[in-house]
């Protein structure tokens, strides 16, 4: 199933923006005198996780035509991400902004997403891409929350499928982006059922399941031949379902500074493992190792480790992730 990933080139669709971290670590936002700036946004973070571990990645998104948009473009390029599919939009649209703490307990994160620039990608923006150059398209579910981005995302997924790409989704449910949970359930469920690899946490599968059980839904979705579903459970690790059964992957115990960035790191690390020829079980373990490193560092994009760092933590015999 994953042979297509050997192209080692990925199109990541979703948001990119600016993160401001209260500094120094441990400081609450309301007490902060200084903030550290960094690239942020779930899709951008996934792309960084991929490039840091030796993959090629292009980002498909929109940024505001202002200084913050230009900051985002420069930051993406500094990580080796292909920005040719990043659209610059005028008007009142603004890049996503996250003001975040580096604290493991009661970590506050304030997100500004009013008229977010990344929601402004259109069908025209996705229609002329040569999808055949990529191994997979990776969709962050926030891109589905509003039009015209929602329609553009579905169009991109269909064009990618027609070109033979694998379809991968991080459900990435953020309540503040959606008009209702019912809307999120309907739209994200449709997108997930189009995909070959579905990754989400307990809350996200709970949204997809509605009144049903999220874990049971994850197992049900995996029964389509060739589909892989990863059900993340925070400190309990994750369960990976395929049509042939399932396996559990525990977390790597680390002294965490903060919880943010782990999900994006997990996706990037897992895909990087598959590109490297790892078995599915070992690739998921690589995703867990990548996530473990990121929560010990400040930021999300800047915290992404390279392949050598990930392999070192995976080789430590004392950790529970072995």
Biggest beta sheet attributes: 9 strands, mixed
Helix % is: 25-40%
Task: Characterize the overall form.
Answer: globular
SSE pattern: EEEHEHEEEHEHEHEHHEEEHHH
Provide a short characterization of the protein structure:
This protein is an alpha/beta fold and 322 residues long.
What would you note in describing this structure?
By secondary structure, the protein is an alpha/beta fold. It has a single domain, classed as Ribokinase (UDP-N-acetylmuramoyl-L-alanine:D-glutamate ligase). It is 33% helix and 22% strand. It is built from ten helices and 13 strands. It has helices at 42-52, 67-78, 123-127, 149-162, 181-192, 202-209, 214-221, 262-275, 280-294, 307-314; strands at residues 9-13, 17-23, 34-40, 56-64, 86-89, 96-100, 109-112, 136-140, 166-170, 197-201, 228-232, 238-242, 245-249. The strands form two sheets. It has a nine-stranded mixed beta sheet with strand order 5-4-1-8-9-10-11-12-13, sandwiched between helices. A four-stranded mixed beta sheet has the order 3-2-6-7. α6 (202-209) packs across α7.
Q: What attributes does this structure have?
A:
single chain; alpha/beta; 9-stranded mixed sheet; 4-stranded mixed sheet; 33% helix
């Amino acid at each position: 199933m994953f042979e297509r990933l050997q192209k080692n080139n990925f199109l990541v669709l979703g948001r990119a923006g600016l993160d401001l971290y209260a500094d120094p670590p441990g400081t609450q936002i309301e007490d902060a005198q200084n903030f550290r700036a960094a690239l942020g946004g779930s899709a951008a973070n996934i792309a960084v996780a991929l490039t840091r571990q030796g993959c090629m990645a292009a980002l498909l998104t929109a940024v505001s035509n202002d200084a913050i948009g230009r900051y985002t473009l420069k930051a993406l390029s500094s990580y080796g991400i292909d920005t040719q599919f990043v659209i610059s939009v005028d008007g009142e649209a603004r890049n996503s902004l996250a003001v975040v703490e580096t604290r493991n307990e009661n970590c506050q994160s304030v997100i500004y997403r009013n008229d977010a620039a990344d929601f402004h990608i259109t069908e025209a923006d996705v229609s002329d891409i040569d999808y055949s150059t990529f191994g997979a398209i990776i969709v962050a579910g926030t891109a589905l929350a509003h039009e015209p981005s929602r329609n553009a995302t579905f169009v991109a997924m269909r064009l990618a499928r027609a070109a033979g790409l694998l379809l991968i989704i991080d459900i990435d449910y953020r309540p503040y982006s959606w008009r209702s949970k019912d809307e999120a359930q309907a739209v994200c469920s449709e997108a997930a059922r189009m995909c070959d690899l579905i990754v989400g946490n307990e809350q996200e599968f709970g949204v997809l399941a509605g009144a049903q059980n999220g874990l049971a839904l994850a197992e049900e979705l995996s029964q389509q031949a060739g589909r892989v579903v990863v059900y993340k459970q925070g400190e309990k690790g994750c369960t990976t379902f395929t049509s042939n059964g399932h396996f559990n992957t525990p977390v790597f115990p680390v002294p965490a500074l903060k919880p943010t960035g782990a999900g994006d790191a997990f996706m990037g690390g897992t895909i990087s493992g598959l590109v490297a020829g790892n078995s599915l079980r070992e690739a998921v373990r690589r995703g867990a190792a990548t996530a473990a490193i990121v929560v010990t560092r400040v930021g999300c994009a800047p915290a992404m480790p390279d392949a050598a760092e990930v392999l070192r933590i995976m080789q430590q015999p004392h950790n529970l992730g072995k």
